[in-house]
Design a protein that fits this description.
Number of helices: 12
Radius of gyration: 60 Å
Number of strands: 27
Largest sheet: 15 strands, mixed
Distance between the termini: 71 Å
Length: 726
């Protein structure tokens, strides 16, 4: 038959389990949030690659979307093959570049390296005195161009002059979407609205005014600016422009600088403007909260959608809990969350990302996609405030890579989710810590209360003299404190039995020894009546002296027991305490004729009616005075009595040896004596002052002994409550 033992959880086990539990919560919570962030990053990466794949799939095998933008070229030449930026706002045709975004960084410079023509007379003459900067942009149905020309001498066309090429002028050449080649000259007579002409042969044909090309000619301290717009219907994928410099009125062109030779269709360069068709397809993906780019095989941007600052991913959504108006949410918003963000960092709402030029994208992931492999990468912005995830997927036309789709997002959405998770984690940990602290406080209070109860029970069970007053109730709790309580109960019970044995031992010894002592005494008395040799008489006297001494010892041993028993049955009565005291002192003077007794009674205490036992009060005084007489060295004992704080104070002093320091608190215990062997002319068991203490306690008083100096001696103080007066 198996024994079933109760399962016990000790205090240390409970504390350890609670501490481990509270400590493990933050660690597991942090690990969970960390793993969650890693999985969210992985999920965001896969989603981004999927978005790029989906968009690239819609562009596969659609060559018309790319051929119309010169994407078929095996290579592009900087300055000859141009790119028109997508403009977010229409351009005001005023000859100023203020509304052209990033004109300084985006404008391409044309100078000596782009010289198309130099007059023979100037072949070895002065250096080139004209150069210009230009940029292109597309908005709605127009292609906008801006030319900033630096010219040391500006020559306008004469008012009556028919020729339009005998002055500074701008030449444009396009091949439209139908494949038709056209040339245009801008030749102004003065600053202001542009004079635009369509030409085929300057020498033999009259130029035709072309109002479709509109713009403004503005003179500047360095030369002049030309700002114009051309309908996209007039522009295909071929373009060239050239600025002709004339240094004297009605003179010939001295220099021509341009992107390509505008005289022939085959010499024109290419132009790429963001494709409306591709933009419509890309715009349908704007709900993905991503920044999207489409590039051709030359890294030139064909379409774009979205803003990287707003592309936080599909996870960056406003939580419904943020609208909560509960008191806990208010507490979090006002106090806790500002505290949390002393450690956490908020995702930046504004950051600088200039890795890409708006016309030409670079990056390992783009290079990899243009080689036919879907790739992704993580990168920091230039100001290192945000992390950007980029995914690129190739676009195939006739099994050849003709471009790539690039999709970008920041990790702000994930960081926001992570911060919210950590906010909830911190709040939960704080709540758990508070609850744990309360639980620990209650648990510790319960333990301390039980320990205090056990302490109080132990103090009540044993008095200051070591006597057992009452038994300890055993605890039924099955833990260490319960074990300790039961151990105390067992120990107190055993001490009680032992004390009971000691208390009864003197009476038992006295009872058991008196019979053999009486036999020995009788035998000695009978023997002394017989005729004995003189030498034997001495031995008989010594034996009788020993029997007398032994009988005295037994009498002293039983006296304390008799006093204790008598006190339980003694009735109290009213008596004059001062009269009893004076009567006792008169008797001591006769008993101890060699001792001088002095008594000092307070003038206010002529009589003191006291409720008690006068016989026992006299016995109390006998024991204390006898002890003082034995130890006095100047043959004097002083007694003094007064009233202080409803207490009757009686002091008995003698001059002589001081009490040992360790004996001052034990002098009134049973079987305690400070007499040396030389002083013990009579047997002493240390019960006299113990009896005095019993009588004092019977009258609800206290007795104590202390040393006094100058001269040295001992003072015994007896304190009796005057509340016992009748």
């Amino acid at each position: 038959m198996a024994l079933s033992l109760p399962i016990r959880f000790g205090l240390r086990s409970k504390l350890f389990l609670l501490s481990t539990f509270l400590f493990s919560i933050p660690w597991f919570g942090y690990q969970y949030v960390w793993e969650m962030e890693k999985y969210l990053r992985y999920g965001q990466e896969q989603t981004l690659v999927g978005t790029a794949r989906a968009l690239a799939t819609t562009l596969h095998d659609r060559p018309n979307l790319f051929n119309s933008h010169a994407s078929f070229l095996p290579s592009v030449e900087q300055g000859r093959d141009l790119y028109g930026y997508q403009l977010k706002n229409p351009i005001r045709l005023d000859g100023q570049y203020r509304d052209w975004p990033n004109f300084t960084s985006r404008a391409h410079e044309y100078g000596q390296d782009h010289l198309l023509y130099r007059q023979e007379a100037n072949a070895t003459g002065k250096a080139l005195t004209m150069e210009f900067k230009t940029t292109l942009g597309k908005y709605d149905k127009y292609l906008y161009l801006f030319f900033s020309v630096t010219d040391d001498k500006l020559v306008f066309r004469d008012k009556n002059m028919i020729n339009i090429n005998r002055n500074d002028h701008l030449e444009l050449a396009f091949v439209d979407q139908a494949g038709k080649f056209s040339r245009y000259l801008i030749s102004n007579k003065k600053p202001g609205w542009l004079d635009t002409y369509r030409i085929t042969d300057l020498e033999n044909n009259i130029p035709v005014v072309t109002p479709q090309i509109q713009g403004q000619w503005l003179t500047t301290p360095q030369g002049y600016n030309i700002e114009l717009r051309v309908p996209l219907s007039m522009v295909g994928d071929k373009i060239a422009f050239a600025v002709h410099d004339v240094d004297q009125a009605q003179g010939k062109v001295s220099h021509t600088v341009g992107s390509a030779d505008p005289r022939f269709a085959k010499t024109l360069g290419t132009v790429l403007v963001p494709s409306p068709e591709i933009e419509r397809i890309v715009r349908s993906m704007r709900y993905t909260n991503s920044s999207i780019w489409v590039v051709d095989q030359h890294h030139r941007v064909l379409a774009t959608a979205g803003d990287i600052r707003q592309a936080a991913g599909v996870w960056h959504k406003k939580s419904a809990n943020s609208e909560s108006t509960s008191w806990w949410r208010g507490l979090e918003q006002k106090w806790l969350i500002p505290l949390y963000y002393m450690v956490l960092t908020r995702p930046p709402s504004d950051f600088i990302d200039q890795l890409y030029d708006a016309s030409n994208l670079t990056g390992k992931h783009i290079v990899g996609a243009l080689k036919g492999a879907a790739t992704s990468q993580w990168r920091l912005t230039q100001d290192q405030q945000a992390v950007i995830l980029s995914a690129a997927y190739p676009i195939f036309i006739n099994n050849q890579v003709q471009g790539a789709v690039i999709v970008e997002e920041t990790t702000n959405g994930i960081r926001t989710l992570r911060n919210r998770a950590l906010e909830k984690l911190f709040s939960s940990i704080l709540a758990i810590m508070l609850l744990g602290a309360v639980a620990f406080f209650l648990f510790a209070s319960r333990i301390s209360s039980r320990i205090r109860t056990l302490r109080n029970q132990a103090e009540q069970a044993i008095d200051e003299h070591g006597r057992i007053k009452q038994a300890l109730p055993p605890s039924s709790t099955n833990d260490e404190i319960g074990d300790l309580s039961r151990s105390f109960t067992t120990a107190v019970n055993r001490l009680s039995q032992y004390n009971h044995y000691l208390e009864n031992m003197s009476s038992r010894l006295s009872h058991e020894l008196r019979t053999p002592i009486a036999v020995v005494r009788t035998s000695l008395e009978n023997l002394s009546m017989q005729t004995m040799p003189e030498s034997a008489s001495a031995y008989i006297d010594r034996a009788q002296s020993g029997i007398t001494r032994l009988n005295l010892i037994l009498t002293n041993m039983s006296e304390a027991t008799r006093i204790e028993q008598m006190l339980h049955t003694t009735d109290k009565m009213d008596f004059d305490f001062i009269q009893v005291l004076k009567g006792c002192v008169q008797g001591y003077q006769q008993i101890y004729p060699n001792i001088s007794f002095a008594i000092d009674v307070d003038e206010q205490l002529e009589t003191v009616n006291f409720l008690g036992s006068p016989e026992h009060i006299a016995q109390l005084l006998d024991k204390v005075v006898a002890n003082a007489v034995e130890f006095t060295q100047d043959k004097s004992v002083k007694l003094a009595i007064c009233e202080e704080k409803s207490q009757l104070l009686l002091t008995i002093s003698n001059n002589g040896e001081l009490l040992p320091e360790q004996m001052q608190g034990r002098l009134f215990d049973s079987m305690v004596s400070v007499r040396s062997s030389k002083r013990q002319e009579q047997p002493h068991l240390g019960l006299g002052l113990y009896i005095a203490r019993l009588i004092c306690e019977f009258h609800q008083g206290k007795i104590s002994a202390s040393n006094h100096h100058q001269p040295d001696g001992v003072t015994v103080t007896i304190s009796l409550p005057l509340g016992s007066k009748s």
